[in-house]
Amino acid sequence: MTIRSSERLLQLFDAKGTVTFAELQEALNKASRATTFRYLRQVPYLRSYNHNGCYYRHRDPTLFDRFGLYSQGDIHFSRDGSLDKTVKRLVRESQAGWTHRELQELLCVRVQVPLLAAVRRDEIRRQKMDGFYLYLHADSTVGESQLQRRRQGIAEQQTDDGTESLPEDGLIIRVLLVLIRHPGARPADVVRLLRGHSPPIPLEQVVCIFTRYDLSSTGKKGGGTI
Is pTM beyond 0.85 here? Predict the structure, then answer.
């Protein structure tokens, strides 16, 4: 007689962390998709928002960073589950809105489709400023507050001659040290690796450093070196 239980799935998660659906089926003695999902619903789990959602892991609240995200290599998870829900939450919770590029760097996937879909459904809104679009909360009062904080942040980063100033030298050094230890890391990876820094390091500043020093190619084949 075949013995199946959700406990077998928990044991698999404990042993391997991130698993495929085929591995879940195998743990349930080669169960069908319907049966596997029935047992999976009995377990708090996460499904990756990239790789077509084909990776699973046990939902552990301690995994998430301050953005509600967790990554294992190039497999990415969100406390919200889907990419659509994650994009909407990040925009709504942000202090100063998000640009398309910032969200893409943070989530390590393309976000244009879910962003535009959310705008069309009036779940978030976008505002054009200084040659780029800023995605904001759909509520006009909250969105205006985000917009003002963004404008203030841009003003604070301008030098007297109107050019963009760089973050302080200490932060630049920290970013470079992370890239020495983790070649190929992207801005969002750097923010995660510097998690725990006080005050928290904004993604926008890391992106600024990457752009100024052309660090996107660092660690890649044929790319630059530090």
Answer: no
> How high is the pLDDT of residue 34?
96
* pLDDT exceeds 60 at position 161: no
In this prediction, residue 186 carries a pLDDT of 84
Query: Which two three-digit tokens encode residue 132?
Result: 């780029």
Residue 13: name the closest of 28, 34, 31 by CA: 28
Do the domains 83-156 and 6-63 match in fold? yes
Residues in the chain: 226
3-state secondary structure the chain: CCCCCHHHHHHHHHHHCCEEHHHHHHHCCCCCHHHHHHHHCCCCEEECCCHHHCEEEECCHHHCCCCCEEEECCEEEECCCCHHHHHHHHHHHCCCCEEHHHHHHHHCCCCHHHHHHHHHCCCEEEEEECCEEEEEECCHHHHHHHHHHHHHHHHHCECCCCCECCCCHHHHHHHHHHHHHCCCCCHHHHHHHCCCCCCCCCHHHHHHHHHHHCHHHCCCCCCCCC
- The CATH number of 6-63, from 1.10.10, 1.10.8, 1.10.287, 1.10.150, is 1.10.10
Domain limits, the chain: 6-63, 83-156, 169-217
Backbone angles phi, psi at 47, to 5 degrees: -120, 135
pLDDT in tens, 6-37: 999 999 999 999 999 999 999 999 999 999 99
Provide the CATH number for the domain formed by 83-156 in this structure.
Answer: 1.10.10.10
